[in-house]
Amino acid sequence: MKSLTYRTSTILNRIILTGGFVLVGILLILAGLNEGEAISNRIYFILAGIVGIPYFGRYFKLYIILLFRDKTIASYDDYIIKVKNRQFSLHEVQKVSMTRSFPVGFLWIHTPAYMILTFTGEKVYIPTYYAMTKKDEGEVYDILKHVISNKKKAEKATVLVSRKK
């Protein structure tokens, strides 16, 4: 079975980036507590720190969790696609699309996600968690579409062969 995975290097880069912004938020609050500054600057520093820490802290937590979690997005072969703990026959899958806003659990973050639609109407979402570069997002989307389109081509070929008999 072939696997699509998040890159550890991208996750580590995002951890460094968001951790840096959290650190800047802490430093802004500490700078706002300095009595040598004007009151307007102190208020601005403290408010910027209070807004920045929770915003970037959520992403920092998300990337730390992703770093230690299984990095497999999906696994597939010629007949089956496996997403998280769900397994689908490729004949059950109708199409793959991309959504731009999918809510991610308790962190109240919305990330892009791949959506697999089955013929029964069930939608299975695969969040990207912003843990992929735009290039990687496009490549994974193309691979998923290719796997589904190959299934359709195989079905059409089977129908054509059965008609010729």
In words, what does this structure look like?
The protein is 52% helix and 27% strand. By secondary structure, it is α+β, with helices and mostly antiparallel strands. A four-stranded antiparallel β-sheet has the order 1-2-3-4, with no helix packed on it. A hairpin with a 4-residue loop joins strand 6 (109-118) and strand 7. Helix 1 packs antiparallel against helix 2 (39-68). The radius of gyration is 22 Å and the shape is elongated. The two termini are 33 Å apart. Mean pLDDT is 86; it is low at 157-165.
Beta-strand content: 25-35%
Count of individual beta strands: 7
- What class would the helix/strand composition place it in? alpha+beta
Using the CA coordinates, give the radius of gyration: 22 Å
| Element-by-element helix/strand order | EHHEEEEEEH
Low-confidence stretches: 157-165
Question: Helix segment count?
Answer: 3
The main β sheet shows up as: 4 strands, antiparallel
**Strand arrangement, major sheet:** 1-2-3-4
Give the fraction of residues assigned to helices.
40-55%
User: First CA to last CA: what distance?
Assistant: 33 Å
Mean pLDDT: 86
**Which word captures the global form?**
elongated
